[in-house]
Specification:
heterodimer, A: alpha+beta, five-stranded antiparallel beta sheet, B: alpha/beta, Nitrile Hydratase, Chain A, 2 domains, two-stranded antiparallel sheet, 11 helices, 6 strands, globular
């Protein structure tokens, strides 16, 4: 989905709030909140793609204002309601009156027909696909051309896995793009590498 | 932190509100028969003792001193680090080690969320998960790194790696000069977490 989470290349942001050797946690609840998604995975309530998709479905105003740990917790709570473990009302009353959740999802999709494997050095083009469900493709490479520099073992296909749809696992290909091709005349010179599922690619030329 | 109105009209601090929501989620697990207290204790132990950047520092120091290991690491990072006894989560099936040189600088990010090789280089800090870094580092890498204190020479090629799948990346920083006599352990002590993300030199 073309959601608020898909931030790569967006303009208007200020300096990174960077401190050297920054702490990971600032409050006890953050550690406890961060422990919830792996627990949900380990007891079989959710998978990682469902988890990511529920974060992406947060209302943009909520997403932007929330801390990372709030986003994580919101996803687990949303999926608990959607899977019938608790009602919205019970969650909110247990949380002191308010527990905003993510918006409902839409339909997903299975593997793309005709997708093929690539080897290092192949030129590829990212398909010009517009996916309203979960997709692990940053919009800044959609339709762009690059070169394969690496290949992974097969992973569950996110567009299906996040929606409970059967699909074959797919390898991902590390594809190298020129920043100047992604954002002509408006980027620093660099190579940008993105790990891209087989279904998102087609051969170039 | 900002104050938030709750349903009763009382103003609670952000941290109080989030603690209540966390407890509410934990209570649902408990109601379904899961031992949340034990899970949280195990998780807290893992983040403070097991998934620590000292793991990655050990990998980097070994790569600096052992050419056979370095070749293994660059060929199959997952196999190389698990052979050292380091943990990788089940869904992290592939680890790519990225070697910095005098002419190439690698930096990692996750523009879509927060993905990191956290069991090797440590859990990602706020800045990595914040909107600013995720939006800007792919498009303005040299500018962002300079703002963060890493002013790279103009002839150094920058390679940004966006962690958009379950492949994980770690940066092998350049070995500092004048460290020829140091032991592997002494070298590991020099390797910072920031350097393994690619936002600092050593």
């Amino acid at each position: 989905m073309d959601g608020m989470h898909d931030l790569g290349g967006k303009q208007g942001f200020g300096p990174v709030r960077f401190v050297r050797n920054a702490p990971v946690f600032h409050a006890d609840w953050e550690v406890r909140a961060n422990a919830m998604y792996p627990l949900a995975v380990s007891v079989g309530l959710i998978n990682m793609d469902e988890y990511r998709y529920a974060i992406e479905r947060m209302a943009p105003r909520h997403y932007v204002a929330a801390t990372y740990y709030e986003r994580s917790l919101t996803s687990v709570a949303t999926l608990m309601v959607e899977k019938g473990w608790v009602t919205t009302g019970d969650l909110a009353s247990n949380a002191g009156g308010s527990f905003p959740l993510a918006a409902p999802g839409v339909a997903g999709r299975s593997n793309v027909d005709g997708a093929q494997d690539y080897k290092v050095g192949d030129r590829v083009r990212v398909r010009d696909d517009w996916v309203s469900g979960h997709v692990r493709l940053p919009a800044y490479v959609r339709g762009k051309s690059g070169e394969v520099v690496g290949c992974s073992p097969p992973y569950p296909f996110p567009d299906a896995h996040a929606h409970g749809i059967e699909a074959a696992p797919e390898p991902t290909f590390d594809v190298r793009f020129r920043a100047e091709d992604l954002w002509p005349d408006s980027s620093d010179a660099a190579y940008v590498h993105v790990a891209i599922f087989r279904s998102y690619l087609r051969p170039e030329g | 932190m900002s104050m938030i109105e709750n349903g009763q009209g009382d103003a609670l601090s952000y941290h109080q509100q989030m603690a209540q929501r966390t407890d509410a989620v934990a209570a649902v697990f408990e109601a379904h028969g899961h031992d949340v207290k034990k899970h949280i204790a195990d998780f807290a132990h893992a983040v403070s003792e097991r998934w620590v950047p000292e793991n990655g520092a050990r990998v980097v120091a070994k790569a600096w001193t052992d050419p056979v290991f370095k070749a293994q690491l660059l060929t199959n990072g997952h196999q190389a680090v698990t052979a050292l006894g380091l943990p990788m989560p089940v869904h992290h099936r592939h680890l790519v080690a990225l070697e910095n040189t005098d002419k190439v600088h690698n930096v990692i990010c996750c523009t879509l969320c927060s993905c990191t090789a956290f069991s090797i280089i440590g859990l990602p800090p706020d800045w990595y998960k914040d909107l600013e870094y995720r939006a800007r580092v792919v498009r303005e890498s040299r500018t962002v790194l300079k703002e963060m204190g890493l002013d790279l020479p103009s002839d150094v090629e920058i390679r940004v790696w966006d962690t958009t799948a379950d492949t994980r990346y770690m940066v092998i920083p350049k070995r500092p000069a004048n460290t020829a006599g140091l032991s592997e352990a002494a070298l590991a002590a020099l390797v910072s977490k920031d350097a393994m993300f690619g936002v600092a030199a050593i």
